[in-house]
Structures are given as C-alpha cells and as structure tokens.
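Hi support team,

I've been running sequence recovery on a batch of backbones for a student project. Most finish fine, but this one hangs at about 90% for roughly twenty minutes before it completes. I'm not sure whether the input is malformed or the queue is just slow. I've pasted the structure tokens below so you can try to reproduce it. Let me know if you need the job ID as well.

Thanks,
M.K.
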C-alpha cells in the first residue's frame, strides 16, 4: 500500500501463533459463562432445578428452605420455608407452576411456585425423603427415601398409588423416562440402579454401578441412562439390555451430580453435552459421541449440585460451603419455537414500500440503495483510528499507553510498548504517573509477565518502573499492593520453575537408577550366560574325552578282531597243508 506524504500509518498489532492445544472453540464457549454471581446460603446447596418454561427461573434447596431465583436478575424471587427440618430435592413440574420437595421429616410437600401456597402433603415414608420428582403427566410424583422404598403418589387425590421395594439401602436418585410416564429409574446406596415399570409395579432391570449411586438422568431420546457414584459416571444402553457403554472416570472424588443439555457447546458444534460435578471441586463437560472431556472448571469448594438452563444461558453450581455460583452466557441459545421452553418470538417489522408517489421516496436518506440509472460518487472517508493510534499520531505517548491498557488486550499493549520503544518514547510514557495511572500499568505487568509471549518485554518495563518509582514506595497503598502482587507473581514463577527443574532432575535420577538396575540386570544375565557357556564348554570337553576313550576302545577292539582274524586264517592254512600231505 502506498502512503501519501504525511499520512499516518496505523499501528500493526502483533500476531502470535494460535494456541490450539491450550484453547479450543469448546473451551472458549464455556469460558463465556462470565460474571459469576455468588450467593451465600445458610447451608449446603444440595439441589438445583431450572424451570422448563421461559424465563427459566431456578430453585435451589439449602438447609430448611427452597429458594426460587429470577433468571433475569439472578435475585431471590420467592422463598419457601415451610419445612420443620432440612429440605431436599426441590423440583419444578413440567409447566413450571408447581414445585415438589422432600424433607428430613419424611413428608413430601407440593407448593405453588408463584404464591408459595402449600397445596399437598404426602405422608407414608418412615424415614427422610431425599428425592422427589414430578412425572411427565403432571399428575403423579415419585419419591425415594432412606427407608429403602420408592413410592408413587397421586397428587390430586393426595394418596399413595404404588409402593416399590427392591433397594436394600438408601434411595438417593430418581429420574423419569422421556418416553413413558410409567418408566422410572432410581439409584441407591446399595450400588444398583433399578429401572421400574409402574404398570407391573416391579423392577424390570437392575444395573450394577459398583458404588453408592448419587444421581441418575435419562438421555433425551430415552434409550440411554447415566448414573453417578463413586469416582465415575456410567452410561448404560437400556435398549441393548442394560449393557454399560462408557465409564467416565475423570474425577478424583465422589461424583455427586449430573446434568444434560440438548444443544450446548459452540454454534459450529452444538450437540448434547453431559456435565458432572464432584467433591473434588470440578465441573467437567463431556461430548457424547466419544465421551471425552471437552472442558473443566474448578470451584473453591466441593460441588454438590449443578444445573444448566434450557437455553444454555445460565450455569448454576451449588457447593458444600453454602456458596451458589451462577454464571451467565454472553449469547444464550434460543429454544425451539412452540415448545414449553421457548422464549416469545419478536415479530419482524416491515416499513411501507416506497414508490415515486410517496414523499419519502423523494427525501430518502443515504441508506437507500442506488437505482440502476443513478451515478455513484465514491466519498472520501477518513481512516478510523483507534484511541491509541490517535494519541500516537499526536505524540501523546502516555495517553497512548493508557488507551492500550484500557482496551484490555495484551497484544495491543505489547504493540504500543514496542512502538514506543522504537520511537524512544518509553521513558516519557512510563514516567510522570500518579497513583491512578500507575496502578493499571502495574496490574497489567503482574498479570501477563509470566506469559512467555510477553515476558521479555514486560520484564524490561518492570525494571524501568522500579527504577522510576522505587523512591516513592510506601506512599500509596494501592501502588504498594500492586508491587507486592508483582513480586509474588515473579516469586511463584521462579518457584514453579524450580519445582519443574526439581521434578526433571528427579525424573532423570529415576531414569538413571532404572538404567543402572537394567545394566546390573544385564550384567548378571551376561554372567549367567558366561557360566552357562563355561558349563557347556566343560560338558563338551568331557564329551570329547569320552568320545576319545570310546574311540580308543573301538581301536583296541578292532585290533583284537584283526589279530583274531589273522589267527583264524593261520590255523585254517595249517589245516589245509596237513590234509594235503
């Protein structure tokens, strides 16, 4: 491109190789769940459930309360506290109007989700009810209890319909099949998952999980089931007779909860995803074609519950210390129109068609498309410059660096610093700063100095800053805090480097020991082989001597035979001559 005299050339932003191994489209999608709102509850958040209908409010169960949050504001909408003891498993009905919850007092309660009115109390269990779910027909509730029984209830009549026995320990999980209201799956601490046919009132399939089962969930087509317990989650093929398809053993501690989303992930690869939460503080996302982990998030406390809204706009995670983390995605996915979980569709607006008889046709603006016989005149447009480009153009170096820092892009800051160094303006940009302008620069240096792409450049900037402002250390608490953060970051990086070097030396030492052991083993093998060769040589020598003795014996026998033959011939000849005479 040819530039005219005096024309400013835009700053070329540094380009770095793509970090394909460190960040993928899947990782970028899940990292867009930002702005976490952390609400501290009075007890552990044991369950999270999203309403199936727009706007997807969510209910969390903690201590003796079930709290309904507004999905738009993420603030408390309703609080249901009519529990005598601890509440469990607050879940919405399919239409989002009613909510059912179990409790430590062995009573199942049904509430109006809008008015908090108590509508039904279902009594019959002998011990705490840890799980309660609405059926897809909206008329029945299934419950599981620590009394090892599963019960089906008619909500309208308030009566028990069926009592299912088969578990031998606490029942902690239940899920309704999307194919039939008569098919349910339950899991318990007896290490098994049972598939129930409510028409026959008995279990039609028993799946051995191998550990206490904490949660179960059906896949959307209903042919697959996932169970969580121990340090793994198992995917079962129900159509194929209950055979295990995959064991997802990617957690270090007990897997406490699972969640399924029909179309999570980036737009280019939107597909069903499985999420698991564990006591190790991790939430992991699985792609369901190969069952591999595509993303993992770390939380500060053991994860007890999680939920993902139907439009993939909110990700809620409940923890053992009572913290509730709710993250919002930048671009929620619209639910299918006409479904219970669909947001209202906005009607498209169309303006009136313009004709030559319309006054607006005569005074139409610049956005109007040119007609076939119109003459197009290209307008000279001035180049749109970024704020740091405008400052560099006017030689305002300190303002240019501040504008680059305000962009939040480390590659832009690196490019501006490189341009300032080339113009010999780095000292002018770094010097003469007050507390308000120095703190963002120190924060940027501390945040990115460990990045290998910026380490050399930012290390030089850090040295210049320490030389320029070392004499005023202690005058500003904010600057002192930033300097301490920078020192700790550099110390951590050095410590990590030392640890890495130590691990490398230990690995080399182990490899050397292994090589030494292997060499000793080889030497012993060679010594054994040498001994075997010596023994073989001795055996060969003995055999040679035996063969030599045997040969001598044969020679002696041969000589004896020869002498005997000679004697026989001589005696025969004497007899012949005697007879002739």
């Amino acid at each position: 491109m040819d530039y005219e005299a005096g024309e400013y050339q835009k700053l070329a932003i540094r380009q770095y190789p793509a970090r394909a191994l460190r960040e993928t489209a899947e990782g970028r999608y899940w990292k867009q769940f930002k702005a976490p709102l952390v609400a501290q509850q009075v007890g552990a958040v044991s369950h999270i459930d999203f309403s199936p209908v727009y706007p997807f409010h969510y209910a969390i169960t903690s201590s003796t309360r079930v709290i309904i949050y507004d999905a738009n504001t993420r603030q408390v909408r309703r609080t249901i506290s009519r529990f005598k003891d601890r509440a469990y498993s607050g879940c919405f009905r399919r239409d989002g109007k009613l909510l059912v919850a179990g409790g430590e007092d062995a009573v199942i309660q049904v509430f109006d989700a809008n008015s908090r009115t108590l509508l039904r109390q279902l009594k019959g269990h002998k011990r705490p009810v840890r799980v309660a779910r609405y059926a897809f027909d909206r008329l029945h509730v299934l419950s599981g209890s620590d009394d090892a029984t599963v019960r089906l209830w008619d909500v309208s009549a308030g009566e028990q319909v069926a009592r299912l026995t088969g578990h031998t320990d606490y029942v902690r999980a239940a899920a309704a099949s999307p194919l039939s209201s008569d098919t349910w799956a339950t899991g318990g601490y007896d290490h098994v998952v049972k598939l129930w046919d409510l028409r026959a009132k008995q279990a039609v399939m028993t799946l051995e999980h191998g550990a206490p089962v904490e949660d179960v969930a059906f896949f959307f087509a209903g042919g697959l089931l996932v169970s969580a317990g121990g340090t793994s989650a198992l995917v079962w093929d129900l159509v194929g007779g209950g055979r295990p398809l995959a064991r997802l053993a990617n957690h270090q501690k007990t897997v406490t909860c699972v969640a399924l989303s029909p179309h999570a992930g980036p737009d280019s690869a939107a597909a069903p995803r499985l999420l698991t939460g564990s006591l190790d503080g991790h939430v992991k996302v699985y792609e369901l074609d190969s069952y591999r982990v595509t993303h993992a998030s770390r939380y500060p406390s053991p994860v007890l519950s999680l939920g993902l809204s139907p439009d993939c706009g909110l990700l809620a995670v409940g923890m053992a210390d009572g913290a509730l983390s709710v993250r919002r995605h930048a671009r929620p996915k619209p639910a299918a129109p006409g479904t219970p979980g669909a947001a209202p569709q906005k009607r498209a607006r169309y303006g009136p068609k313009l004709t030559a008889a319309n006054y607006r046709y005569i005074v139409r603006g610049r956005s109007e498309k040119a007609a076939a016989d119109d003459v197009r005149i290209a307008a000279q447009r001035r180049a749109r410059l970024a704020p740091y480009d405008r400052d560099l153009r006017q030689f305002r170096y300190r303002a240019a660096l501040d504008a680059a820092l305000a962009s939040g892009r480390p590659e832009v800051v690196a490019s501006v610093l490189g341009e300032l160094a080339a113009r010999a303006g780095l000292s002018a940009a770094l010097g003469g700063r007050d507390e308000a302008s120095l703190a963002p620069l120190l924060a940027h240096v501390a945040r990115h100095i460990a990045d290998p792409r910026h380490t050399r450049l930012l290390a030089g900037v850090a040295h210049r800053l320490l030389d320029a402002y070392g004499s005023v250390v202690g005058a500003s608490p904010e600057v002192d805090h930033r300097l301490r953060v920078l020192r700790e970051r550099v110390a951590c990086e050095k410590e990590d480097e030392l640890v890495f070097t130590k691990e490398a030396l230990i690995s080399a030492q182990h490899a050397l020991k292994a090589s030494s052991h292997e060499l000793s083993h080889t030497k012993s093998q060679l010594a054994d082989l040498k001994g075997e060769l010596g023994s073989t040589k001795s055996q060969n020598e003995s055999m040679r001597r035996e063969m030599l003795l045997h040969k001598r014996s044969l020679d002696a026998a041969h000589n004896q035979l020869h002498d005997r033959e000679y004697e026989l011939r001589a005696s025969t000849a004497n007899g012949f001559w005697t007879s002739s005479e």
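--
Follow-up from support: It reproduced on our side and the slowdown came from queue contention, not your input. The longest strand covers residues 255-264. No action needed from you.
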